[in-house]
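Bug #2210: token dump truncated for Coenzyme A biosynthesis bifunctional protein CoaBC?
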Amino acid sequence: ASDIKKKLLLAGHKILVTAGPTYEAIDPVRFIGNHSSGKMGFAIADELASMGAIVTLISGPSAQQSKQPSVKRINVTSAAEMLEACLDNYPDSKLCIMSAAVADYTPVTIASQKIKKQDDHLNIDLKKTTDILKTLGEHKQPHQLLIGFALETENEEQYATEKLKKKNLDLIILNSLNDTGAGFKSDTNKITMIDKYLQKTIFTLKSKTEVARDICAKVAELINQ
Ligand code: CTP
Ligand code: CA
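Reproduced locally. Full output below:
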């Protein structure tokens, strides 16, 4: 009976979630990536689906599998591909949670052949990627909501609050890497939520499944308020 009740919390709402790393190609066999596992985004997508939401999950390269068969997964590789998929899907969505670890820089050119080793030093020219979350914030309509993450190692709350404002977000989830056990490859996270009214909620170190539950409870509150 409580499962049926839960299914009603987000019934019928279309929600977009991003997860995982992006891979930026250097040449046909190499890329620049990061250690994001995708666990947080997949856990959020599953929890939202269990609350009745219609979930589209845009994922970078990740070994994760959705536990909820209703989650529609779109696989992408690079930041540019993730941007395109997000722009395609956000207009139709009530809310987007951007939990992907998007590369900040990408090679200016992709070598068409494998780069051969030559000198002792090799420089690869990089250019900034488009900030997907900021772009969605610029496209956001009055009926839509936007949630971002912030990964910080210093001045955490100040930097997270700046991102919340700069990217036109309704909520930012600060990921604290400082606490032992929290982070990219682990199964736990320590988060602080800051909403657009600058209301702050601090959470204890928890499993990513439990963190997903906290985040999705907040999503239901934002959507139903
Ligand atoms: N993000 C994004 N597109 C990018 C870079 C980041 O959409 N090209 C999103 C992330 O998915 C996250 C939020 O922006 O939801 C914050 O990412 P983070 O790396 O913490 O901040 P940045 O704005 O990239 O700034 P910096 O890395 O310099 O702290
Ligand atoms: Ca970044």
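Output looks complete on our side. The pocket of calcium ion (ligand 2) is lined by residues 104 (CB under 6 Å). Marking as cannot-reproduce; reopen if the truncation happens again.
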